[in-house]
Design brief:
This protein is an alpha/beta fold. The protein is built from 16 helices and 13 strands. The strands form three sheets. An eight-stranded parallel β-barrel has the order 1-2-3-4-5-7-10-11, surrounded by four helices. Strands 6-8-9 form a three-stranded mixed β-sheet, covered by helices on one side. Strands 12-13 form a two-stranded antiparallel sheet. It is globular. It is an enzyme of class 3 (hydrolase). This is Beta-glucosidase.
Length: 453
């Protein structure tokens, strides 16, 4: 169907939202006692960011949050997913809270509630305090305990008003790109040596769930990145490679959350891997990780093509192969709406009654949007993308998947990690020099969609 065909009705109470993250939009890196994060360090290292930009200013949301909340109110959204910058709350990752940091999120939360927008707070969207990275980061078990301390401080101040808490954002991506391949902060290149960062993030999640529940009655969850795996061949080796990648990307951060333990083959099952894993995964850890959650956040962008490795004895048991035959975004990601339906039904079938209600906590696309002479910003490709993916969500709901909401990534064009300012995901165009915000045609489309609901 074309975007001109009205979307079918979603269930009553379905949440419509947008999402952002702290380092990508806030700026104000030296404001009010904020400490240094791993992204502050990484972005200032020559060659790390494709266009040489940093998040020092980004969208200057730290100073312009009222303007951005007004944009959200104009959309008519029911919820806003943002992340809290850990270095604003604990500049060194430990110790008492920095009052000015908590004050900022206090003001933001109150501004959202005044506009009837529910605050949805993510505790960790990759901006680890640099001081914790200096002593091992997520490779250090102690970071999990420090994360729980931070969660308690944040919930102690905001827990009476934040409507949904998410502990981690995309721990798979942070482990893989941050500790495995070095494309993201902190820039380590450990390949499978990054796996301890998986366990420690999950342990931190479980400890944070307990800390949050002690301070707030709001629901608690996590936001995972998922990617349906498409074998690029029918041979036994290709299917085995696809299964290995599925275990790493999709099951590693979900099986243990839902009480299934770690998938075999990743070095985290003590019985399988011997003393090394037994040292890493200690008695009681899996019970902590499997603390019941109220929501599973699902971030979806595209499926992944996988084939058997060209070199069977190489460092990885699979090879990533570009999917062909689909339109592509400016990120060169394939546009595959049916992949979202596939993902949601796979989660339902895989986890059954153990699967909590789902929120689509991120879904969106980058295109090369420009502001025209008449001050408009047309982005028909984004409208088509969002329309197609929402139809996929609706089909999944009709097929019995309990999906409660959908958050567009992103409200604003932002600092897109290693891509700097070269990739625009926003419903709102941001001129990074002037900080002028220009709603795109997708903003009007989403606003009208929500108003019809």
């Amino acid at each position: 169907m074309s975007p001109g065909t009205p979307l079918p009705a979603f269930p009553p109470g379905f949440t419509w939202g947008v999402a952002t993250s702290s380092y990508q939009i806030e700026g104000g890196v030296d404001a009010d006692g904020r400490g240094r994060s791993i992204w502050d360090t990484f972005a200032h290292q020559p060659g790390r960011i494709i266009d040489g930009t940093t998040g020092d200013v980004a969208c200057d949301h730290y100073h312009r949050y009222a303007e951005d909340v007004a944009l959200m109110a104009g959309l008519g959204i029911g919820a806003y997913r943002f992340s809290i910058a850990w270095p604003r709350i604990q500049p060194a990752g430990t110790g008492p809270a920095e009052p000015a940091g908590l004050d900022f999120y206090d003001r933001l939360v109150d501004a959202l509630l005044e506009r009837d927008v529910d605050p949805v707070a993510t505790l960790f969207h990759w901006d680890l305090p640099q001081a914790l990275e200096d002593v091992g980061g997520w490779l250090n078990r102690d970071t999990a305990h420090r994360f729980a301390d931070y969660a308690e401080l944040a919930a102690g101040r905001l827990g009476d008003r934040v409507k949904l808490w998410l502990t981690l954002n995309e721990p798979f991506i942070h482990m893989t790109l941050g500790y495995g391949t070095g494309e993201h902060a902190p820039g380590r290149t450990l390949l499978f040596g990054a796996v301890p960062a998986a366990h420690h993030q999950l342990l931190g999640h479980g400890l944070a769930v307990a800390a949050l529940r002690a301070r707030t009655g709001s629901p608690v969850g996590i936001a995972n990145n998922y990617s349906p795996v498409r074998p690029q061949g029918t041979g036994e080796a290709d299917l085995a490679a696809a299964a290995a990648y599925d275990a790493l990307h999709n099951r590693l951060f979900t099986d243990p959350l839902l009480g299934r333990g770690y998938p075999v083959g990743l070095g985290l099952d003590p019985a399988e891997a011997g003393a090394g894993a037994a040292d890493l995964v200690r008695d009681g850890d899996l019970a902590v990780i499997a603390a019941p959650i109220d929501v599973l956040g699902v971030n979806y962008y595209n499926p992944t093509g996988i084939a058997a490795p060209a070199e069977p004895d190489g460092p990885l048991p699979f090879e990533m192969v570009p999917l062909t035959g689909y339109p592509r975004t400016a990120f060169d990601w394939p546009v595959v709406p049916e992949g979202l339906h596939e993902l949601l039904t796979t989660l339902r079938d895989r986890y059954g009654a153990d699967l909590p209600p789902i929120q689509i906590t991120e879904n969106g696309c980058a295109y090369d949007d420009t502001v025209a002479a008449d001050d408009g910003c047309a982005d028909p490709e984004r409208i088509a993308y969002l329309d197609g993916h929402l139809r996929a969500v609706h089909r999944a709901v009709a097929d019995g998947v309990d999906v409660r909401g959908y958050f567009v990534w992103s409200l604003l064009d932002n600092f897109e990690w290693a891509e700097g300012q070269t990739k625009r995901f926003g419903l709102v165009h941001v001129d990074f020099d002037s900080q002028v915000r220009t709603p795109k045609s997708s903003y009007a489309w989403y606003r009208d969609l929500i108003s019809r609901r």
